[in-house]
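TL;DR need structure tokens for one chain.
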Amino acid sequence: MRDTNEKAVQAMRAFLEAVGLNLKEQGMEQTPKRVAALYEELFDGVGRNPEEIWHERFASDTKGIVAVTHIPFHSICEHHLLPFFGEVHLAYLPHDGQVAGFGKFVKLVECLAHRPQLQERLTMQIASAIEKGLDAEGVLVVIEAQQLCMTMRDPRAHGTQTITSECRGVFRDEASLCQQAWLLLGGKRE
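>> reply
TL;DR here they are.
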């Protein structure tokens, strides 16, 4: 386990005191250290290169679309530093049968989600990483998430989900392939 970043601990202590908390009086003396350690974990994707995830590909005879659905994720909204979380669904058309192990997609999502993010950017980054890393002929990524910066601040937004998508390559250019990819991801969307 890494040592907690002392600069982050001191900054968190200063922040909590600046918003009016008396850490000692409220039994929160260790909170700055715990929060700093937590954010180090939540942001451990910063500086990581998602291209390194694709170091191993497999040759297959597949000519069809590959889909991986219901990949859970959590990230931190860069606007308010509150969590957003949900599931990533993706489909890709391999180039010349080149595929990756299914666990690589979970690692990719985690790498990109573990940094301050916007859901729209995360969706685009996942699609780009698959398109580039696997030389995929087509990519479709859909993210369904709950944004706590919205639902915690507006009681009318309770249960609201945000859905973003990014379509690349032949899925963007050929309607029938796009429709097939959408159907593999649940068939609810047109």
